[in-house]
Amino acid sequence: MTLSGSALADRIHGGWLGRIAGNMLGKPVENGEHWTRDRIDRYLRRADALPLTDYLPALEPPPDPVEFELRPEWQQCVRGRIHGSCRDDDVDYSVLGLHLLETYGPGFSTEQVGEMWLLRL
User: Does the residue 39 lie in any domain?
Assistant: First the structure.
């Protein structure tokens, strides 16, 4: 399959948006040991948000931190409060990969990855 420049740019743009949106969707509950499937279900039921069709809603008043341990940046990552993307290691790695490609091209070396990692992260 050969894509035109604009079609390729559109796909790359869509990929970046999907990466960021997916990351933001899971960000508030990104503690796998605490946020089990059952706990997420209880949170969503309490928020009357099942089935989930949008970003995680904030509970008002805020939930008990022992029962629902939310990440420190959770208030920026819930429905109605998202104005861009929170900083995140997953996004950082994607940006680092892009920077490697832009700087060294597709043949970058392990050493260049290490150098860029130390310089940028």
Answer: yes
Domain-located, residue 110: no
Check residue 63 and give its pLDDT.
84
The answer to whether residue 71 sits within a structural domain is yes
Residue 40 included in any domain: yes
For residue 1, is pLDDT > 90? no
- Cα 9 to Cα 7: distance, rounded to the nearest angstrom: 5
- Full domain range(s) for residue 32: 25-85
> Measuring CA to CA, how many Å separate 12 from each of 6, 16, 47, 57?
10, 6, 35, 29
Total domain count, the chain: 1
Whether the CB-CB separation of 24 and 82 falls below 8 Å is answered with yes
pLDDT tens digits for 37-61? 999 999 999 999 999 999 999 998 8
Model pLDDT for residues 77-95, shown as the tens digit of each residue: 899 999 888 888 889 999 9
| Amino acid in position 77 | C
Quick check: 2 and 8 in contact, CB under 8 A?
A: no
Q: Is the dihedral of CA 34, 58, 15, 87 positive or negative?
A: negative
